[in-house]
Amino acid sequence: MTGRFAGHAANSLDPWLQLDPNNFAADDNFHPNAAGYRAYASALLGAVSSVQPAAP
């Protein structure tokens, strides 16, 4: 995930992490925003779809 988030840090031009500079104690600071969650979902779906089910 580190590679996917490169260039999208909090307070970057295209952030995928939330940061409220007026409230550093905000509960959602440093949590993904919608774009960040899409990046996580894409990575997880890619990993899951490449896994073959175990034989019974």
From TrEMBL:
Alphabetized InterPro entries for the sequence: SGNH_hydro_sf
Identification of the protein by name: Lysophospholipase L1-like esterase
UniProt organism field: Pseudarthrobacter enclensis
